[in-house]
Amino acid sequence: MGTRKRVCAFLFSNPGLYQHSIAKLRLINGVDYSSSRRQFSVVNGEAIRGKQTTEQLYKHVDGLSTGAEVTAVKDQLDPFSLVSDEISPLTDRLRSMVVTEVPKLASAAGYFFKKGVEGKRFRPTVLLLMATALNMPVSMPSVDRLSPTGVIDNLETELRRRQQCIAEITEMIHVASLLHDDVLDDADTRRGVSSLNSLMGNKLAVLAGNFLLSRAFVVLASLENDEIVSLIAEVVEHLITGETMQMTTTSEQRLNMQYYMEKTYYKTASLISNSCKAISLLTEQTAETSTLAYDYGKHLGLAYQLIDDVLDFTGTSASLGKSSLSDIRHGIITAPLLFAIEEFPQLGEVLQRGFDNPADIDLALDYLGRSQGIQRAKDLALKHARLAVKAIDSLPENDDEDVRQSRQALVDLTKIVIKRTK
Ligand code: FPP
Ligand code: MG
């Protein structure tokens, strides 16, 4: 079979890949392509409006190379690449949003938005994928959808822009919380570089965090949606609640799994779950759909933090880009140790003493190493990852290719979270 036939046969059997692979073909065959939302494509200089079936697009493709085939196969599994062309301008907007005239404040607030230290932008990726995953087609005649200045196109663009705002708000709140967290934890490093507090001092780090929050709330206000304003305000309250719960535990609460999970929800899962819900609220979905979006974010967030807590024991400082064994050194007891206590109750007594004596840290790590604690924490993370997948599988059926592809990407993200090593 010739190259063209092989590539087309492959694309026919993987329709969801089709338009995405066209984007990659541009690099190889000089095929032009535009629109991250795939509302229209330009293939070999010819504009094709609206969403196209694989068969329709097939007619426009010429001269595919073997390289294109390989690229198409490789791209199938990467959820990040699905929204990468939207993440890049979003990152630029974030940089411009945190600009201010006071030089020290500008460099402090922009610190974790600089190239190379902006992180994986995991949250914006989840939120943009969720936006497409919930993109139930508007019930209007298809002729309107194809009109160059059509109402539907404009409405969809406007909705997408508002959903991108949620992603930007979420990322600013996340970075603000990290700046404050590093002050509270007296952290030296973050994302493989000096933490802001260690570089510019606690006072400026706290002020930069406050500044980011204020900028996030300006964007939030621009959405003119009271329900979402309340929701996001509640998220900030949750972050503070979770952090305070962690800081002020009684000796009984420190060894209580339920307390740990509640704190974990407030500290980590609330931001992503409520932001997913906000994405859904903007599309005016049913309450059931918004709850499923929330459930996905909640279970993904819980799985994420459980793995984070495992990695604090199993990762190296170099791989994590921040100190390992940080939790136990701060007297914070996480899931692996809580499970280990069930096998070695005497570990509970060691943990209750606090860690004034450094030898107790070694003793606790020794018990942990002999227990199933790490594995059981990973199993719990897996359970939450599966619940996140269940929420996606429970969304109303939809056979739109972009919707299906984004839902698959959200499912794939749960696997990435479980398997991550940094
Ligand atoms: C990381 O925890 C920290 C958080 C997930 C949230 C921190 C929240 C606050 C400091 C409350 C203030 C909030 C705002 C919005 C200003 P970690 O120490 O377990 O993780 P790490 O290892 O990445 O530091
Ligand atoms: Mg910390």
TrEMBL record:
Pfam families registered for this protein in UniProt: polyprenyl_synt
Keywords, comma-separated and alphabetical: Isoprene biosynthesis, Magnesium, Metal-binding, Mitochondrion, Transferase
Localisation: Mitochondrion
One GO BP annotation of this record: ubiquinone biosynthetic process
Domain of life: Eukaryota
Keyword ATP-binding annotated: no
Needed cofactors: Mg(2+)
GO annotations of cellular component type: mitochondrion; polyprenyl diphosphate synthase complex
GO molecular function: metal ion binding; prenyltransferase activity
InterPro entries per UniProt: Isoprenoid_synthase_dom_sf, Polyprenyl_synt, Polyprenyl_synt_CS
PANTHER family per the UniProt record, alphabetical: ALL TRANS-POLYPRENYL-DIPHOSPHATE SYNTHASE PDSS1, GERANYLGERANYL PYROPHOSPHATE SYNTHASE
Entry similarity comment: Belongs to the FPP/GGPP synthase family.
Record-given protein name: Solanesyl-diphosphate synthase 1, mitochondrial isoform X1
